[in-house]
Amino acid sequence: MAGRWRVRVDVAAVAVGCVVGLVGCSPEKGEAEAASASAAPVVPMVIGTEEAENVFNRYLSERMASLDRRDGAGLAAVETGELLKESLARIEVAKLRGVDAPEFSFGRPEFFVPAERDQQGYPRSFVVLSRERSDETNAVRDAAVHYFLQEAPGGSWKAAARSWVNDKPVVGGKNESNMYHIFDYEVRDQEIAAIGRDTAGAVTLSPTADREVCGRYAEYMSFTAPNGEPESGYFVPGELTSEVVKAYNVMKEDLELVRKQYAFEVVGAHLPVLRLADGKSLVTCSFVRTDNWAGKSATFKYGNGDYGGVDALLGGGYKWWRDTTVRRGVTVSFEVPPTGPADVVGSNALEATPLSAEGTPK
Description:
The chain is built from six helices and twelve strands. The chain has helices at residues 27-38, 49-69, 81-97, 212-220, 242-249, 308-313; strands spanning 106-112, 124-132, 142-150, 157-166, 186-187, 223-224, 258-267, 274-275, 281-295, 321-336, 343-347, 353-361.
């Protein structure tokens, strides 16, 4: 069955149980293993293992080449939705600033593919966890989480979102790679539980109702500084929740001189919700954050560094502005329990990708 991944046991497995003359070999044990193997379920998956690997490798190759060339013409073949918009904006900013748009290769991928029975309609999806391409054992805690979608039967599989999580415990005496910092992400130090699989190896999905956390987060993060409310009944207080609100409340400019309003909007495709081994869900959401800044009794400007991309989109030259509207791409991953508040486990909300900018100059 082309394009499907089947979990099965080859006939040769029947002969593994016993070879006459070997110590400890028992025909009864071999027969029992063979019977167990023959009873293993044959479950069609939404994409086969080899095809998923090809999709992932093709995506990595084209993305790296496009960013290296600072030319996004080929990205539409391997990316879609908000990820594509962010990649094209990143290339545009790099060209405007005359700098590179670096990308790093990923290795050691783990594929999490749903069974067809769990995704009977479209879009269909699969998820890849991958890490720094390194032989060092220290680069294991943080993983990039890539979401791939197929919009229609026979359509191309494309990357729709990328986030980061810690999914491995701390190993004593080992350093952490912290590659997510290179991509402007922050991740929760406490690792998430393992992503669940069923007996056939298919990833275990959670109810899509868990995606309600996306809208709640957008509401939580939309406010005029310094009036953001760090405490929320929907989110666990912490470095990636309440502390981010506090950071927005005092971010960069003097609020007595500049009014700063932030508005989050949920955008993009509904990505699959993954069930974790502890019963919680891993939910990733895409947002557009619109920053409306207006001088009260003064003008303002965007410097180099973190705000260099905004200055470039505004035409460069570090000009003074009376007001600006800047749109940024934000991706956030949540750990959602069956009951109680959710927690953010990966986010670029503090260094979100600038997508566009306009304003009124002095």
